[in-house]
Each structure stands twice: as structure tokens, then as C-alpha cells.
Amino acid sequence: MPYAGGGASAFWDWADLLGSSVELWCAVLPGRERRFAETAETEAARIAEPLAEAVREKIRTPLVLFGHSMGGLIAFDVARRLGGLVEHLFVSATRAPHLKSGDEPHLLDDDGLLDWMTRLGGVPADLLAHREMLALLLPTLRADLTVCARYRGTEDVIDVPITAFAGTGDPLASEAEVAAWERHTTAGFDLVVRPGGHFYLKDDPAAVTSVLCAAAKEGVQ
């Protein structure tokens, strides 16, 4: 499940890394890629509810969920709705949902929002040269960041193991803020710290997928 402003294509390369024993499914959310004509949602529940239904209908168990940044919050909400169907939840570069965010990037003007995302490393270099395309993508990014801002404060707990990934230099989700996910599960918690910033997983995706593969194998057993 993708980060704010991101799409399923961010994870397509993971198919080879995960190997033939793992079937990769990527969520295509409203407002991006083949659903670009749809309006992006600003409430997590309006994303998670239909997504959970789609998972029930289409995806076989054992099932693990992974979400990066905003995707971590959505994955948590989907796991809450699916209950025992989920073997493991992975959240990445995501502050624990009970922690309220002091940042409000969704309130910035377009130039400020683009600068904010660029400094995080979330805008591909080749896209920066296409201002017209960026202008089309900003409403979806703003909507996604609104989802994050409105989600904070929940104390929900799930009976699903959670593994949380943190980047050592992430300005949006510190190690302590990611470690705080431990209070949202009754089924075991693990913290994995990787070098890098908010988009640390782009530097060494294999280090992330290897952890997911290990969990998938446990689920099969």
C-alpha cells in the first residue's frame, strides 16, 4: 500500500525480489495511475473499507500486508477490518497512529508542498522537469496528506503481529515514533531499523523484502 502521492508502480520491482513463492498484490488507490480520473479520498475509512472487501474477494491466505508512510496507516486500518485473515502487518516509515502529528504539509500552497516532498526524496528526478505533470499530481498528494493528518489519535489495537521499519534519518517518523506501534498489537512486535531517510527502502529494497519473505514462509507453515 503506497505512500502519500505514490502508486502501485512503486512496488512493481518487488515481484522479482519476493520470488515465485510469494504473490505480490499492489493497491491502486483513487486519484492515481489507472484510477487517475477518480477523486482522491481524504478519509482513511473511505480507502480502507473497499480495499478490505477487495482483499477478501481476490487474495488467498496466508496474507501479509505492507504499507509505507500513509500506506502504513491504511494497511493498519485494513488489517483491523480483516482480523484473523491477516498473518502479519508491516508498517514502514509510519508514526504510530496514536501519535498526533505537528506537521500539516497538506495546508501548504502548491510550491511549498512540492518543495516539502522533494526535500523528503519522494519526487523522482525525471519528474521534476515536468511541472505540468507535477501540477496534476499535487491534488492527490494533498488529499493523501489530509488522510494522515486526520488519522492521528486512534488507540485501536489488533491481534496481528506487527513489524515496523524505521529509517535512521527519517524527519517524519523517528525510531521512537515508529517503535510506538508496539502498543497497537496484542500478538507480538518487532522493530527493524534501516539506514536512510523517509524513503530508505528505495536504497536497498531487498533488505525489506527479505523480512517480508521470512514472514510469508512462517505463514505457510
From TrEMBL:
Spell out the protein name for this chain: Surfactin synthase thioesterase subunit
Quote the Pfam families the UniProt record gives. Thioesterase (PF00975)
Organism whose genome encodes this protein: Lentzea atacamensis
Q: Which InterPro entries match?
A: AB_hydrolase_fold, TEII, Thioesterase
Q: Can you give the residue ranges of the Thioesterase domain?
A: 2-208
Q: Which residues form a coiled coil?
A: none
Q: Which family does it belong to?
A: Belongs to the thioesterase family.
Q: What Gene3D superfamilies has UniProt attached to this entry?
A: alpha/beta hydrolase (3.40.50.1820)
